[in-house]
Design a protein that fits this description.
Jelly Rolls, 12 strands, mainly beta, 1 helix, 5-stranded antiparallel beta sheet
């Protein structure tokens, strides 16, 4: 986890070409967030996953209340998500952009499998990305603050 957070910080600094590393004086917009689930969570049929524990939210583009990331600028974004279900159920989660599925994660039942996806998406300002249960039945996600993550970073604009 620390390695991942360090990598995000390095990318943010490299995106900022001025000598000062203050986000407010950066010549390029800086947008990055990482959020996770803090506990076992049940997501209703076709419900959006609301990652409640926000580790980073530079640019305030992620809303833990809605679970939705809203791109503040046109640009190339890296979107990442990990999934771990409870052994009692299998889970399919969609990565959704503006209501259209762009990718899917799957975690099987009767075991503790993890899955993950990383996407590079060109987004327009105000485009929305979220993680959603692809099934009509409830999905049970296993977590105590480390397995289910959602993150995005503006790579270039």
């Amino acid at each position: 986890m620390l390695r991942y957070q360090t990598a995000i910080c390095v990318i943010l600094v490299l995106n900022c070409f001025k000598a000062s590393f203050s986000w407010s004086t950066c010549s390029k917009p800086v947008v990055a967030f990482t959020a996770k689930l803090s506990k076992d969570t049940t997501i209703g049929g076709h419900g959006i996953v609301k990652y409640d524990s926000v580790l980073t939210n530079v640019g305030e583009a992620y809303s833990p209340q809605s679970g939705i990331f809203t791109a503040p600028y046109d640009g190339l974004y890296t979107i990442s998500c990990t999934l771990m279900s409870l052994p009692s159920n299998s889970v399919h989660l969609n990565i959704v952009k503006n209501g259209t599925k762009v990718s899917i994660l799957y975690s099987a039942s009767k075991t503790w499998p993890q899955s993950g996806q990383t996407l590079h998406l060109i987004l327009k300002a105000k485009d929305k990305v979220w993680i959603q249960n692809s099934n009509s039945k409830a999905a049970k996600l296993h977590d105590h603050g480390s397995y289910n993550l959602f993150s995005a970073i503006l790579v270039d604009f």
